[in-house]
């Protein structure tokens, strides 16, 4: 079971990956953003994002690769297969992981992320509430514009 089980939760969910006979549960406070998962069958990794948590589990070994406590709310994952990368977008942060669960880079931002998308499988565009944009290299995390 992942999440703050003793905390002020109003949602409990079970995640099942039948192909590898894996099951886990999460407890969280529903703030309007649903949990999101990415399953990498070849690597037996499950990336799970919810509330202020990102967790990577090795489903074959049934152990946690990492558990990242976030400073802002998790939004969703973007998988970029050509880069073997999973991007975690949060309210004020970006995290990029490889398929093994190793963090490649992370970036804290000063403004709330309003929109985000991948350009040509190589760049990540972040749009703020005021319309300003930042473009990052997915592999290096460097600002391009």
Structure commentary:
With 145 residues, the chain is mainly beta. The chain has a single domain (2-109), classed as Thrombin, subunit H, CATH 2.40.10.480. Helix content is 0%, strand content 57%. The protein contains no helices and 14 strands. The protein has strands spanning 2-3, 11-17, 22-28, 36-40, 45-50, 53-58, 63-69, 74-80, 85-90, 93-98, 103-108, 113-119, 123-128, 133-137. The chain has a 4-stranded antiparallel sheet with strand order 4-5-6-7, with no helix packed on it. It is globular. It starts with a strand and ends in an 8-residue tail after the last strand. The model has no long low-confidence stretch (mean pLDDT 90).
């Amino acid at each position: 079971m992942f999440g703050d089980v003793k905390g002020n939760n109003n949602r409990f969910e079970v995640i099942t990956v039948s192909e590898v006979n894996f099951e886990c549960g999460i407890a969280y406070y529903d703030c309007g953003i649903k949990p999101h998962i990415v399953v990498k069958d070849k690597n037996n990794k499950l990336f799970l994002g919810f509330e202020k948590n990102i967790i990577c589990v090795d489903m074959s070994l049934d152990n946690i690769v990492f558990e990242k406590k976030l400073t802002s709310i998790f939004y969703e994952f973007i998988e970029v297969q050509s880069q073997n990368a999973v991007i975690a977008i949060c309210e004020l942060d970006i995290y990029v992981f490889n398929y093994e669960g190793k963090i490649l880079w992370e970036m804290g931002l000063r403004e709330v992320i309003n929109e985000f998308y991948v350009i040509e499988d190589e760049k990540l565009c972040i749009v703020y509430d005021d319309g300003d944009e930042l473009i990052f290299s997915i592999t290096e995390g460097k600002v391009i514009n």
